[in-house]
């Protein structure tokens, strides 16, 4: 009997503690989205949506840089090139010996984790050219920087499919012996031997040539770009990963008369001395929205690599304030506009991200999608926050429970938020900072779209007056 009364007392104490909770913003939030208490439903809240052009991004030291040309029939043309400096050798002579015979010269850059486009029906020609002016070592270039390039092609390669996930076997010289080694997925473009021999001319005095200023003013740097005129098909944008761990640069194999052994010199590319250049030419439909952002449209567009984002706001959400609502679940559901996408190229971004801006116009995560280290919001759902494309339902969805509750409580004063593509490189977090790590796009129906209507489903209960 004593155990019965002790259990009853414990139950009563628990009920008093729960009844004394005075912070409704934490009710029903720290659970899995699928297990949340439902309640009454509001699904008619107005959602304003507009297509907004993204600002340029500085690319110094970024983990991935885009390369390619995508002629999207709905969005428009997007092209990306990579500019970089070649480091002089940290040890030894950076010149190619005067009496050497170059066997091969290969520009090597590792592949990253993203590709977007049509890899089955496209053929792309990559070209390597020398910059007209020296790459300023250490400078942080934006994606809209203007580059002057010598028109002479130093090397080119036509690719039917970017094998960005396939390791390859290459011949290498190890301890003076030809050896076949397996390397990470990488793009390799052969350059003309004669041009390399002339560039690293052994006739120049070694003390002069190996001087840092002289070397960079002579070598200048290179651009890797796409020949748009020779491309067949829609094309695509691949990402290259220039890491500080090495493996990216110009490998030159040569022989000298004094030995039959093949020798090599490797001029590295540093991530701090590589920059992406991105250009977009939009279709008339997209440009119309950029020129008239206050108009209402049934379809909006978002695109990676510094292209487009969708701005969303809830202009009538103030009507829900001061009504004692406890938000059990708020879910934003966004459908892709299949009619606008058409059939020529209907691939959608595999994942979108969602974030807001603070009073200083700095990007910041919403509480439901906060995966920051150390300072993450305890109400965050982590990756369960959403954003992954459901190809069967043709939709994306996001959990906005705490975000909506904070707006109703006055903790967040601005109901505006943004969505844009998320990259594969961010597989373990919800990204919110500006980046050029994904070239994907999504064509989305708005709240005004009769067939692909965007909705915010709010399930709530009311506090007792």
Characterization of the model:
The longest helix has 18 residues, at 2-19. The chain has two domains: 24-54 and 304-462, no CATH class; 65-281, no CATH class. It is mainly beta and 465 residues long. The chain has helices at 2-19, 193-199, 206-209, 212-219, 284-291, 338-341, 401-408, and strands at residues 40-42, 48-53, 65-72, 76-84, 101-117, 124-131, 149-159, 168-174, 177-183, 186-191, 222-226, 235-240, 249-255, 263-268, 274-282, 299-303, 308-313, 325-335, 352-357, 363-364, 395-399, 417-421, 441-445, 455-462. 12% of the residues lie in helices and 36% in strands. Strand 8 and strand 9 (177-183) form a beta hairpin. The protein is built from seven helices and 24 strands. Residues 1-31 have low confidence and may be disordered. Strands 3, 4, 5, 6, 7, 10, 11, 12, 13, 14 and 15 form an eleven-stranded antiparallel β-sheet that branches. A five-stranded antiparallel β-sheet has the order 2-17-22-19-20. Strands 1-24-18-21 form a four-stranded antiparallel β-sheet. This is DUF4270 family protein. It comes from Albibacterium profundi.
Per DSSP E runs of 2 or more residues, the count of β-strands stands at 24
Global mean pLDDT: 90
Q: How many domains, in number, for the residues? A: 2
Any low-confidence stretches, pLDDT <50, length ≥5? Answer: 1-31
Structural class: mainly beta
General shape: elongated
* Proportion of helical residues: 10-25%
Distance between the termini: 39 Å
| Number of helices, counting only DSSP H or I runs of 4 residues or more | 7
Profile the largest sheet: 11 strands, antiparallel
Strand content: 35-45%
Global Rg: 28 Å
Protein name: DUF4270 family protein
Organism: Albibacterium profundi
